[in-house]
Amino acid sequence: MRVRFRSHERAASDVLAVDGIDLTVAPGHILALIGESGSGKSATLLALAGLLPQGASAEGVVRLLGRSILDLPEHERALVRGRGIGMVFQDPGGSLNPVVSIGSQVDEVLTVHRGLRGRAARAETEALLTRCGMADAAHRAEAYPHQLSGGLKQRAAIAAALAARPAVLLADEPTTALDATVQAQILDLLVGLVDTERLAMLLVTHDMAVAASVADRIAVAYAGRIVEEGPSEQLIVRPGHPYSLALREASLPFEVTHDPLTRRLPELRGRMAAAGGTGCAFAPRCPLVIDRCRTESPALLPFGDGRVACWRAGEAVA
Amino acid sequence: MARGTGSFILRRLVHAVPVILIVAVGVFLLLAAAPGDAVDAYLAQTGSGDTGFAAQLRQQWGLDESLPVRFLMYMESVVTLDLGWSVAVSAPVTEAILVRLPSTILLMTSAILLAAVLGSVLGAVAAMRRGSPLDGTITTIGLALNAMPGFWLGLIFIVVFVVGLGWFPLAGMSTIDGPTDPVGHALDIAWHLALPVITLALTYMALYMRLMRGAMIETRASDWVRAARARGLPSGRIVRGHIARPALLPVVTMLGLQAGAMLGGSVVIETVFAIPGLGSLAYIAVSRRDLPLVAGVVLAGTVLVIVINIVVDLAYARLDPRVADERVRSGPNR
Amino acid sequence: MRLGGWIGATWLLVVTLVAIAAPLLAPGDPLNLVARPLIAPFINPGFPFGTDQLGRDVTAMLMHGARVSLVVGLAAAAGAIGIGILVGTLAGFLGGRLDTTLMRITEAFQTVPTFILALAMVSALGASTGNVILAIAISSWPATARLVRAEVLSLRQRDYVDAARMAGLRPFDIAFREILPGALHPVVALVGVTVGGAILVESALAFLGLSDPNLVSWGGMIANGRAVIRTAPSLVAIPGIAVALTVLSVSLVGDALGTRLAPRSRAYA
Question: What is the assigned CATH class of domain C3-260?
Answer without folding.
Answer: mainly alpha
